[in-house]
Amino acid sequence: MSEVLTPPVWVHTDELLNRMVEDIASQSRVAVDTESNSLHAFREQVCLLQFSTSRADYLVDPLVLKDLDVLAPIFSNPNIEKVFHAAEYDLICLRRDFGFSFVNLFDTMQAARVLGYPAVGLDKLLGDKFNIKMDKRHQKANWAERPLTKDQIHYARLDTHYLFDLRDVLESELREKERLDFALEDFRRACILDENRSRSNGDSWERFAGRKDLSLRELTIVAQLCKWRDREAERLNRPPYKVVMDDVFVSLAKNPPEKKVDLSGAGLSEKQIKLWGDMILGAVRRGEVAPLVERKQAERKNDAVLKRLEKLKAWRKNVGVELHVESDIILPKPYLAILSENPPKNFNELLHLMKDSPSRVEKFGPQILKALGVKHAS
Fold first, then answer.
1. Contact at 8 Å (CB) between 135 and 151?
2. Does the bond joining 334 to the residue before it have cis omega, within 30 degrees of 0?
3. Checking CA distances to 50, which of 156, 166, 201, 287 falls within 20 to 30 Å?
């Protein structure tokens, strides 16, 4: 595919935004992507929204346009298909920053996964299908910086410019392999807000709580270090790992330093010691005397549930190998818990439990029931 691309429209005023929305609203589909600054800020935010229609490519600047509510009806309009690549992360960010809700989605990455593609990155798919080359270096750029470079602008517009073509090719292949229904069900489930996933993950130290090599006292020291790091990272507006890396905290907890001279042994640089040495020592000392933190105990599933879970995993893995797809394409992860904890007694109960994926029940229902040990499953 070879074409001369006209420059994208830089949308930075309400007038341009409204004009873009008029264009999108008049059409049956729009390609969408976002760029965020997770590698460069304490609190990530969407720094750019890209849209493509049959008429133009648009780059929307949310750092200038503080009110993007006019986009909400686009995302919630069932008559306009929103084409994403790797939609999950974009939807999380768009819900978080703007409160958008979604219907009628097509995710080209998920479509490629359902088809069994071994590599599903946009650069790989566009290169293979259309001989389009993308510069992946810009994935880690700081998209909050202005002005964007010409290369960044070109990269950003490519994220949506060819999505219609890619979507159509993949839909055709899904029809040929009789897997379109699988993909459509996955797209519909992606639009549903998962309340559990949208909740806070708790204090940052809890990420260490599952480590068996940390005693409760050591974990308490890590907790104090994490609390200090979060405050400092927020003050500097940078990701916590750009203050001090996690493995340094583990080393400090296992071998608590007494003086600043001891900090280098844990992996801290001279600059870090100069900037934060006293504060780090203070956090360690607080951790040595603070009340012990408590590990959240995961709910122990009973043996029958675990046995059913393992049988389902083994079954879907084997079928995935046969069909050359990853196992979660055969039976998406949410259904593993649902079926192992509340096993259906018959086909109708299975259909009720998997009501959001009837095509999988139709194709694999008897096999699922058999894996669960339901008699007369065949």
1. yes
2. no
3. 201
As beta bridge partners, residue 60 has 11, 49
Query: In sequence order, what are the residues at sequence separation of 6 or more whose Cβ sits closer than 8 angstroms to the Cβ of residue 290?
Result: 220, 223, 224
Which residues face 265 on adjacent strands?
A: none
Please report which residue ranges of the chain form alpha helices under DSSP H: 14-25, 72-75, 87-98, 108-115, 122-130, 150-161, 163-176, 180-190, 195-198, 216-236, 246-254, 270-289, 303-323, 327-330, 333-341, 347-353, 358-371
The pTM of this model reads 0.92
Residue 24, both tokens:
């999108």
**Integer Cα distance of 239 and 104 in angstroms:** 34
How far apart (Å, rounded) are the C-alpha atoms in residues 160 and 57?
8
| Residues 39, 239: Cα–Cα separation, whole Å | 6
Query: Which residues contact residue 32 at a Cβ distance below 8 angstroms, ignoring those fewer than 6 apart?
Result: 49, 50, 51, 82, 83, 84, 90, 160
| Position 71, amino acid | L
What is 285-313 written as a DSSP string?
HHHHHSPPP-PPPPPPPPHHHHHHHHHHH
Q: Decide if 126 contacts 166 (C-beta within 8 A).
A: yes
Task: Show the domains of the chain with their CATH numbers.
Answer: 9-198 (3.30.420.10), 204-289 (1.10.150.80), 303-371 (1.10.150)
- Check pLDDT > 90 for residue 227: yes
Q: What is the pLDDT of residues 307-361, one digit of tens each?
A: 999 999 999 999 999 999 999 999 999 999 999 999 999 999 999 999 999 999 9
